[in-house]
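[step 3/7] inverse_fold.run input=structure_tokens len=133
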């Protein structure tokens, strides 16, 4: 139980790092009008994958930790973040113009990141605050 909590709490740093790397690369690709390449796909996949893992660990925690009211906002925001990351990514795939594709996927990662940050703060924690179990 404690391992699961610490894994969920610590994984947020990988989610945040993956988001920042994806944002930087996507913004560069958008600004330079370069073709949407494998690196962009991989960075977005890493971000969405770590976010999905974070959501799964969070769902598992619901079964082993006490529920408190602030969790509802946290859960909703995190689920919306995962939906935004996947939704914008899929929608971006259909864009014929490379710049539009970068822009749509970039918007999705930014929206998801904002929701993740809001979700962290919804439970009364700072983004980089170490949690106490």
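[step 3/7] decode complete -> sequence:
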């Amino acid at each position: 139980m404690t391992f699961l909590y610490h894994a969920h709490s610590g994984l947020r740093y990988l989610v945040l790092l993956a988001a920042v790397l994806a944002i930087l690369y996507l913004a560069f690709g958008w600004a330079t009008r370069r073709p949407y390449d494998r690196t962009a796909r991989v960075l977005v996949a890493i971000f969405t994958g770590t976010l999905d893992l974070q959501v799964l660990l969070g769902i598992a925690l619901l079964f082993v930790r006490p529920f408190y009211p602030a969790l509802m906002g946290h859960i909703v925001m995190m689920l919306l973040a995962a939906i935004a990351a996947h939704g914008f990514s899929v929608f971006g795939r259909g864009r014929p113009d490379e710049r539009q594709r970068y822009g749509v996927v970039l918007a999705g990662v930014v929206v998801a990141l904002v929701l993740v940050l809001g979700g962290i703060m919804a439970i009364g924690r700072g983004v980089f605050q170490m949690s106490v179990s």
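[step 4/7] annotate
The chain has a mean pLDDT of 91.
The helical segments are 2-32, 38-64, 70-93, 98-122.
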